[in-house]
Task: inverse folding
């Protein structure tokens, strides 16, 4: 089978178009037939390099992208399989990856994934055994194995990024995490949905300065009142539609035909702007009925692409209260507003300083007393007395300060002394998911995202250079419910 997407996205001369399909909660039926029809028409049209198929979007069960993708793949169109960390542990994920390799479907969009939704009998257990950085690393390792086993083709893994963030911490975190995913093995990037071209510009400037060889595709969505409302109300994690844009969409769709025409026009204009800004392709979403709409967007793009700069004003400022990241790339943002930092709280800074000081004394392998701690740890381990230290000292302290979950492989030092197990519902160890909103958590909107707090803690302590610096390996489940202190000093945990 010809791997069109791989060839096209890795050739810098190409502007690539992919199309996102969203399977339904059915094995046979109208939605599935429609998606296969759209894919067949896309193949016949010839302008779409691949369809990408979502993996239980919103965390709710739907037909597997693997099986739907394989059916489409057999019709001749290339497929990008969305692969999330939500529903399987690392064993299941690796097995699924091997299955996809065997089926020849090696274009992967590696995502943390939305939080768990509802399946049989209620909400599903959220797994999140790996995060998206680790997932990229898993595919890189598997690729090397595939080649060693004699498979001529490795995986082509992509990652997502959301430039549509409003706080300095989130902007910084999104870009840093994207860089980490690329370092871990991602070969292409796809943006989240949004309509603020300043933000699109900001992302491509950051990216060109840091990873010029990795292609970035931007999401372009056919906006209907329903989808605009969901994004405006924050029901699509990471996607943004302002009040103003939402109101415009509702007005446009008072009658369906003009509404659809306006949506096609908006998608085409955004598409040509993105091409003009230097994106290497667009990822079209929101197509549920027929390929004709995609054809109309692409036709219109061909007509207007020379005039892309004329449409910039129609999009600027479409995300309210949005600031622009000013980091080392200050030059490109000098005249734009600086993103807000969230209000700092002593409840953040005091525990940070306390825990950091304690860490420096007790958990630094270069520290003066480190050999003594190691000796004590070995004695406790040999005499099976570790539980005395754990129950008598470690648990009480760590439960009070960190709501410790006793994983035995402590990751607090990578998150400015917060626990990724108790503090982040997705247990991210290498930076935030894309779902935070105005600095608050996708899952618990009343709580600040753990990574926003981490950034603010470090910035306050003039240590923001250390933010998301380390690649943090997966949690070692073999250490669950054991003493993290002993594990650390005996070199049994991930920090060995
Ligand atoms: S704490 Fe942050 S990274 Fe974790 S689920 Fe919430 S928004 Fe995502």
Result:
């Amino acid at each position: 089978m010809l791997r069109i997407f791989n060839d096209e996205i890795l050739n810098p001369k190409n502007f690539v178009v992919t199309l996102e399909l969203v399977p339904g909660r059915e094995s046979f039926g109208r939605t599935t037939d429609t998606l296969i029809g759209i894919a067949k028409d896309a193949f016949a049209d010839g302008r779409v390099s691949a369809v990408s198929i979502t993996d239980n979007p919103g965390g709710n069960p739907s037909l597997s992208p693997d099986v739907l993708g394989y059916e489409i793949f057999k019709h001749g169109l290339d497929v990008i399989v969305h692969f999330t960390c939500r529903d399987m542990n690392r064993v299941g994920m690796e097995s699924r990856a091997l299955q996809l390799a065997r089926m020849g479907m090696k274009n992967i969009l590696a995502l943390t994934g939305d939080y768990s939704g509802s399946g049989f009998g209620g909400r599903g257990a959220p797994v999140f055994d790996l995060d998206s950085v680790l997932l990229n690393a898993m595919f890189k390792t598997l690729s090397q194995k595939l080649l060693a086993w004699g498979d001529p083709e490795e995986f082509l893994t992509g990652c997502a990024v959301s430039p549509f963030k409003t706080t300095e911490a989130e902007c910084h975190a999104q870009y840093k995490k994207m860089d980490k995913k690329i370092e871990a093995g991602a070969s292409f990037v796809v943006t989240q949905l949004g309509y603020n071209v300043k933000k699109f510009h900001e992302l491509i400037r950051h990216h060109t300065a840091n990873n010029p060889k990795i292609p970035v595709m931007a999401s372009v969505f056919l906006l209907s009142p329903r989808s605009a409302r969901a994004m405006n109300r924050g029901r699509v994690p990471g996607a943004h539609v302002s009040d103003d844009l939402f109101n415009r969409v509702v007005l446009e769709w008072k009658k369906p035909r003009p509404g659809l025409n306006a949506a096609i026009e908006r998608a085409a204009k955004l598409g040509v702007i993105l091409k003009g800004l230097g994106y290497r392709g667009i990822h079209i979403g929101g197509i549920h009925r027929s390929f004709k709409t995609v054809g109309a967007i692409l036709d219109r793009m061909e007509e207007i692409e020379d005039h892309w700069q004329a449409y910039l004003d129609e999009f600027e400022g479409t995300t309210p209260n949005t600031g622009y990241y000013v980091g080392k790339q200050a030059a490109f943002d000098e005249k734009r507003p600086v993103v807000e930092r969230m209000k700092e709280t002593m409840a953040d800074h005091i525990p940070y300083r306390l825990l950091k000081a304690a860490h420096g004394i007790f958990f630094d392998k270069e520290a003066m007393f480190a050999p003594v701690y190691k000796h004590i740890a070995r004695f406790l381990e040999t005499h099976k007395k570790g539980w005395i230290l754990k129950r008598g000292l470690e648990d009480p302290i760590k439960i009070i300060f960190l709501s410790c979950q006793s994983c035995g492989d402590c990751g607090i030092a990578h998150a400015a002394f917060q626990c990724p197990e108790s503090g982040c519902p997705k247990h991210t160890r290498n930076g935030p998911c894309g779902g935070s909103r105005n600095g608050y958590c996708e899952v618990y909107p009343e709580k600040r995202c753990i990574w926003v707090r981490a950034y603010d803690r470090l910035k306050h302590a003039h240590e923001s250079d250390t933010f998301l610096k380390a690649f943090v390996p997966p949690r070692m489940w073999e250490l669950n419910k054991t003493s993290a202190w002993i594990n650390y000093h005996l070199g049994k945990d991930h920090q060995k």
Notes: Residues 424-426, 428, 432-433, 435-436, 441-443, 449-451 surround iron/sulfur cluster (CB under 6 Å).
